[in-house]
Amino acid sequence: MTICVSPCHPSASLTRIFSLFFTSLAAVGAGLFGPAPGVPGAEPRWFAYRCPYGVFEAETLRQFAKLGVRVVQISPLNTLSSLGEPYSPFPPSWIGPGQYDFSPVDKYFESVLVAHPQAQIICGIDLNTPVWWPRLLGAMNRVDSFCELGRIAAHERWRKETSDYLRAFLRHTESRWGQVICAYTLFGGMTLEWQDQSLGQESPSKRAAWRRWAQAQGMPDPVDIPPMSLRERASRGFFRDPVDDILAIRYWRFSNWLIGDTILFFARSAQEVVKHRVPVGTFYGYLWEHAIPGRIPYEGHLDFERVWASGDLDFFMAPASYHDREVGGGGGYMLCVDSLRLAGKGYVHELDHRTPSARSVTVLGRPIPGHESGFADDRAAIAGLRREFAAALIRGHSLWWCNLFGHWYDSPVLLEAIGQMRQLWDEFAPVPAEPVAQVAVFADPESMYYVDGSSPLMAEFLFRQRAGLNRMGTPYEMYSLSDLARVDLSRFRLILFPNLFVVDEVRVRQLRQKVLRDGRTVVWVYAPGIIRDGRFEEANVEKLTGVPFGTPGVNVRLMDGWRSVYIAKPNLPASLLKTLAAEAGVHIYSATEEPLWANSHFVALHSQQGGLREIVLPKKAAQARELFSGATVAVNTDRIQLRVESPGTVLLYLEPDEGRNTNE
């Protein structure tokens, strides 16, 4: 094996940079590093900058450094993006079979530290096939993992050679740059987010893996991967029949398992070198975002519960949803963020919203995702980015400001706004706050194996449902269904099951023990429990909800100790959700149908139209301060009236008063 690396000792200029870095460490503060990684909930709350792809933009990095943003994510990657641009501004480091040249990686680090000597770096690692790998002379059955991850994920040679590269990369960065690296991110698949675009197509390695997996599950040897006519089959209209379509259900479960297994394989390989010194994370688990025609169950993200449970991964990332992200929209999450919190994992919210100055059309003439919903001017951009900032602050996440293909932060006005948000983050992210949501939403990944992935109806259950949830005037939490066993439900007055199509006696018993009690309102959508104990029967819906399948309108049944609400039409609007929540005894903070977030110390509201707004608190606050303006807007009250700009985002800090009974 030939390994070509750059010199092992920093240059004199870098020695000076390191000296500056270590003298400034004390100024970084506990909010950056937090407790030791690997401890549940101990991952740091990052307020970070993500360098652009294909171009370095040192001046922008210097501007973020002046704003006090010390964490920088870099992508010294080997592949081209889906828009024709290289992911890295420096050449590849995996240059041939067993041949690595890490001097471009070193140049990337050096360039960042010259522009920002105090930077702590989150380093991305590219696990996709380099351009030469699938084209290697004499190689058979090699495909491009960026485009067809599912067809290569079980390829033993690809796994071995890629894990060899991963460990070599980490040995180099840990020995040379470990002092400035605060985390690693593992990238693979389409757009680096472990998205499989192969639509379940076969390859020799996938066929062999499918046969092994099936027999390990107690199935007879399937011999071949099912043809498209079978793996696309949904003989019950929108649903796959658990008997007649069982081969398709099992194959898609395997396909998602394979992507999850691949991520876990590389995470284990990474920890052989990193040994949990710093957090390791990745993109994965886009249940809500992929729930549109042509994405679930095809792209491989349904195995997230197993991947999130791994001790080899500490945090996960996702962009803000591309649905409803324009100014006035609710933004939203691609994944079950509260399940991540429950698992003790960190979450990084990526702000890749197009700003007015953004370079968002690439060399191939294709716009980036979200281009059409970009912010038209600085005023809209500030309102929209404050929305995402406030959500991350209140919900307890990290965030990074993504520059993507460059020039996203050319505006001095926008940089000034980000500087203020960084100051607020440093001051208020450490404030201990309790969740106050009384609405919980449980989404079910298992049920998504039983639906027609190409049906136009697919988008109505999760993808579009976020718009109504974000505007119902009260906060909510997002869980995966398997978390029912460990979530404390005592706080929740309304629970929504938007896609609970599959149940068995274990699930039904758990529902009765945990959910269907204590006077709660439970909202069921479309066909809850229509598949029960492996049988498709429309009568199953009435057994679970008390209402026959397909009954139109809002159907309420008073049950033994709880209230059942069945609604056949999915994608419940904000007005209906608000009414149901109020009837369930949920506290409503705002009468308007606008995005809102809250916890025990903060309330945020985002508005396109602006104007006079009233926020009603569940109890009196000694003082309420609007953080973006710095103005005190209320004293000793539970009703706050304030004016919101058009467009605008307000962020209220509810100051405690130890000497005052705030319930008075």
Structure description:
The protein is 29% helix and 19% strand. It starts with 11 loop residues before the first helix and ends in a 9-residue tail after the last strand. It is of the alpha/beta class and 664 residues long. The radius of gyration is 25 Å and the shape is globular. Helix 11 links the parallel strand 7 and strand 8 (315-319). The strands form five sheets. It has an eight-stranded parallel barrel with strand order 1-2-5-6-7-8-9-10, surrounded by four helices. Strands 12-11-13-15-19-18 form a six-stranded mixed β-sheet. A five-stranded antiparallel β-sheet has the order 20-21-24-22-23.
In short:
The protein contains 18 helices and 24 strands. It is of the alpha/beta class and 664 residues long.
Can you lay out the helices and strands and say which pair or pack?
Layout: H1 12-23, H2 25-28, H3 30-33, E1 47-50, H4 58-66, E2 71-74, E3 94-96, E4 99-100, H5 103-115, E5 120-126, H6 149-152, H7 156-177, E6 181-187, H8 204-216, H9 228-231, H10 246-274, E7 280-283, H11 304-308, E8 315-319, H12 337-342, E9 346-351, H13 378-395, E10 398-402, H14 412-428, E11 439-443, H15 465-470, E12 476-480, E13 494-497, E14 502-503, H16 505-514, E15 521-525, E16 531-532, E17 535-536, H17 539-545, E18 554-558, E19 563-567, H18 574-583, E20 596-598, E21 602-607, E22 611-626, E23 631-644, E24 648-655
Helix pairs in contact: 7-10, 8-10, 13-14
Assess the beta-strand content as a share of residues.
15-25%
First-to-last CA distance: 74 Å
Query: Number of helical runs?
Result: 18
Mean pLDDT: 92
- Main β-sheet: number of strands, strand sense, barrel status? 8 strands, parallel, barrel
Described by its quaternary structure, the protein is single chain
Instruction: Kindly provide the radius of gyration, computed on alpha-carbon positions and rounded to a whole number of angstroms.
Output: 25 Å
List low-confidence stretches: 1-42, 659-664
Q: Percentage of helical residues?
A: 25-40%
